[in-house]
Amino acid sequence: MTTIAPVPFTEAPPAPARKPYDPRYDPLIATDPGAGRAYAPTWWVASAGTPPEDDGPIVRDIDVDVVVIGSGATGMSTALYLAQEHGIQATVLEANQAAWGCSSRSGGQGQNASGRLKRSQWIARWGLDTARRLDAEIRGGFENFRHLTTQIDCDAYDGGHLHLAHRPEKLAGLEAEATLMRDTFGYATRMMSAEEVRSDYCDERETVGAMFEAEGVGIHPLKFTFGLLRKARALGVKVHTSSPVQGWETVNGVHHLRTPGGIVRAKRVAVCTGGYTGQALNPLLKNRIMPILSNSVVTRPLTDAEIAATHFKSHTFLTDTRTLRFYYRLLKGNRLQLGSRSSVSGADAEGPVHLKLLTDAIARKFPPLAGIPIDYSWWGWVDMSHDMMPRITQPDDHKTIWYAVGYGGNGVSFSTWAGKRLAERVAGKDGGHAVFELPIYRSPLPFPNVLGLVESPLFAPFRRIGQRALYKWYWLRDEK
Fold first, then answer.
1. CATH number of the CATH domain containing 191
2. β-bridge mates for residue 258, sequence order
3. What's the CATH number where 43 sits?
4. Segment 198-234, tens digit of pLDDT
5. How confident is the model at residue 19 (pLDDT cuts 50, 70, 90)?
6. Which of 372, 404, 422 is the endpoint of a domain?
7. Same domain, 277 and 335
């Protein structure tokens, strides 16, 4: 018998009342993920319409085949594909509201990527052959995502992606990556001058040139995930909100997941909790994810005069070449959205300096919008793996536990493909398939490391000290 976080199994208490949103929540130190907490005050929540029906909280002990923990895009796509392709009707457990974490707070930029590494870095790490196979896999995931956005009403804009050089010395790197993507991987990636960006897309004053990728779909991430939820429930999937996993015990191979309203006993468990993966959830995930805060703002609607002054002609999304990149775009309804990294800890998340970072960026990039009122401001946790690439895997062959996490801010498109692959693995359909030999499938998430040389959980307590130092170094490198 393997025991994980043993808890006394007593009569189940009633489901807790809904609690207000906690802006200082920090998954690295919090012991309670909440139960039924309100959504963060995002533009996505304000504009998504009425949330779809779910199955409410767990109210009694139940026995199920498969539990999916987390109801974001990864969790809902895992449940959807389990039902749609394998005839398995999973039970989804969500601590708070449906799609409460990343899927109601992200930038909604669906790129042809996963993790933080570029294709040139794939080659450097694994060699050209593996990089080609990984590209085919992630490109297939992007096309699957693109197809889903045509089936779900999610304000999708299939307009590609502009990667803007914010300093002249950044152009050479963009040009090299564009050449590699074109000549080695067969993309139609091309470079654009600053004048072309300003005449064809928007008058972004910082840019000195850009790389354009045709593969990019901007979405309303909450509408999209709500669409996945509706599809999954139509196939018999149960989605239980206000049902955090507060204790996990494995007895004779059966997982006993304690929620406020009852014990859920499951033969198999898929963890899809992204940046909200708590340290106490399961030892297989402890210290494997570094949650990173990302802040976003959405302005009031731009006037016709402001649209003319900023020369916005497209809803194509943009990112710049800072290490702590800014991501931005004109949304449906002519609001400007802009985001970037911010506070290191949840305790400091409400600090006004982090909002000022974003409003200063708006003024710098789009001077006619300096001082424009901000209607929505929020932040959320990004699931950063310690080697900058995700994992969709069964970390221990002897335990019927799988996870899909670690996208590093590039999970909007790939999360749905990760869910599809995770469903195959949970259903036992991954044997003998060469694709599962790719690095993102064949190994567990690594522990923290020092300079990429030594991997150990002993470094975990010092991660945020290192993060603060890195943020200062990144700022100096990017701005000075």
1. 3.30.9.10
2. 247, 263
3. 3.50.50.60
4. 999 999 999 999 999 999 999 999 999 999 999 999 9
5. confident
6. 372
7. no
| DSSP 3-state of 469 | helix
Is pTM beyond 0.70? Reply is yes
Residue 52 domain flag: yes
Calpha distance 322→319 (Å, rounded): 9
187, 265: one domain: no
Considering its fold, how many domains does the chain have in total? 2
Whether 75 and 420 have beta carbons less than 8 Å apart is answered as no
* 153-184 pLDDT, tens digit each: 999 999 999 999 999 999 999 999 999 999 99
Question: Is pLDDT of 9 > 90?
Answer: no
**Which H or E run includes 65?**
strand 62-69
Is the same domain home to 353 and 255?
no
Q: Which token pair is 197? A: 């960006």
Angle at 285 (CA atoms; ends 281, 291), nearest 5 degrees: 90
244 strand-pairing partners: none
- How close are the terminal C-alpha atoms of the chain, in Å? 57
- C-alpha 422/C-alpha 388 separation (Å) is 19
The pLDDT tens digits of the residues spanning 367-394 come to: 999 999 999 999 999 999 999 999 999 9
C-alpha to C-alpha distance for 24 and 382, rounded to whole angstroms: 15
Q: Is residue 1 part of a domain?
A: yes
Among 11-25, 41-55, 312-326, 436-450, the range scoring the smallest mean pLDDT is 11-25
Distance of alpha carbon 92 from alpha carbon 183, whole angstroms? 43
Tell me, what's the pLDDT at 223?
98
Q: Which residue range(s) make up the domain with 117? A: 1-155+218-288+385-446
> Among candidates 331, 338, 302, which has minimal Cα distance to 156?
331
Question: Looking at residue 32, what DSSP letter applies?
Answer: -
CA 307 – CA 60 distance, rounded (Å):
55
Distance CA 13, CA 23 (A): 27
Do 194 and 61 lie in one domain? The reply is: no
| Spatial distance between the Cα atoms of 261 and 1, rounded to a whole number of angstroms | 25
Burial class (CB in 10 A: 0-12, 13-18, 19+), 30: middle
Residue 263: partners with Cβ closer than 8 Å, 6 or more residues away: 9, 12, 61, 62, 256, 257
| 126 alpha carbon, distance to own chain's centre | 24
Is 332 within 8 Å of 315 (Cβ atoms)?
yes
Structure token pair of residue 176 = 């090299």
